[in-house]
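ENTRY TYPE: paired fold submission
RECORD: A
CONTENT: sequence, then structure tokens
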Amino acid sequence: MCFRSFVVNINVPRVPFPSQSSNSLRNWILGIILTIILPFGTNKWGPLSKLKNEVDTVVETIEQITEVVEKVAEVVDKVAEDIADDLPEGGRFRKAVVLIENVAEQTAKDAHLLEDIIHKVQGVEEDVESIVESLIGEANKPSKEIKNGKSLSKL
């Protein structure tokens, strides 16, 4: 017995990707997040809140580390600048100190940028939490009215 494979050419209409506008992209991201978070709306917040607490702890630790790195880099930059001023022009030591000064400046800038990103992520987290809380509140309203004996037709 011989088996042959047949290739079937099916023209499936392509679904266009969402436009790259910020509103559309934000709505897609919000929809994905809500799809993941809303099933936890009943008595299952335990694992999610534990994960959130762990993530918050890690973010706070990273924020503290970036602040320390930024301060240390600024001090190293100042010290290297003072030392470079006392060394002769064109010498190897001066070049090495100037290199250290440049690395310290870049490290301070990078630490500051990372700190800004952390603050923005925390702001977005607060926005998502408020949206989720309001959606859960709206989702619980009809069920409370049914329990109280009110009909949904009055809504």
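RECORD: B
CONTENT: sequence, then structure tokens
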Amino acid sequence: MLKPFAVAKNNLQDRASQRLIGLLLILGPGLTFAELPTMEAPSRGEGSGLIETIQNYAYDGGILLGLLIALLAFLGVAWHSLTVYADVQNQRKTWKDLGAVVGVGALLVVVIIWFLTKAAEIL
């Protein structure tokens, strides 16, 4: 059998927890959105209207896409160079092959970056 003091204590804890839950439900959403950062303007400015602002954000997206293309080209050349190096170590290819792959790959990456820079100027 429960003692009267134990029942009163449980009721008091239930009320306190209900009030705490209610307070968190009321204040919780306000606290979560309190410190959201502001959105940055595009690199060429916000523009004079909505269309110009969207075009400026699209320009930034195009520049980011160009950086990703350059990164993929660099990683592709690096990967192929590593596989040729492994073949050199296994005596299936010569050091000349590795030099040719690295030289042509470096030239390819430079040309890709040059083309992407020209494309950015056109945008």
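NOTES ON RECORD B: The chain has a mean pLDDT of 84. The chain has two domains: 1-36, 46-122.
STATUS: closed
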